[in-house]
Amino acid sequence: xxxxxxxxLLDRKTIAARVHAMGEQIAADLTRDLGGDLExxxxxIMPIMTGSMIFVADLIRELPLKLRLELVAVxxxxxKSMESKGVKLRGxxxxxxxxxxxxxxxxxxxSGHTLDVVxxxxxxxxxxxxxxxxxxxxxxxxxxxxxxxxVGFDIxxxxxVGYGLDYDxxxxxxxxxxxxxxxxx
Length: 185
Description:
By secondary structure, the chain is α/β, with parallel strands linked by helices. The chain has helices at residues 12-33, 53-60, 113-123; strands at 5-10, 43-49, 67-69, 72-75, 88-89, 101-109, 129-137, 150-154, 160-161, 177-180.
């Protein structure tokens, strides 16, 4: 797997430090919204699968809150595609979000379409608050204006793999973020 990578953009140590800092900020913001009532269970973490799973697993361990995890399955990069092919919900969006504080988490903000669609559908359920969190963002790339509350890292407009992000279903388990060598695609 290592031999398929061209270069490493983010190593394990850098990722771990940023995820910890993001967890502190998110926990502080949600604690403020909850009025200090961390046991009430009004927090819903909504990861967009499958790319965000590694990030979410690490991030929720940094959140000392009573929370629910509600998964959303979306596909936008099928197979070997390196360009978004549009957002397709696979299954139903979790319900019963009224009055809850929802944190939608995605692996990468690229076109913006996935977060736009999911956040609009969540807002229709009248939650108390909706926040958006992405592990990676490509500044200036989004064709849809999606205000994101928490960003792990801004990266160049390159196709990346690792830490949950894949190419044709592979490389999700690579613990760093890197670019693929052309012959690995």
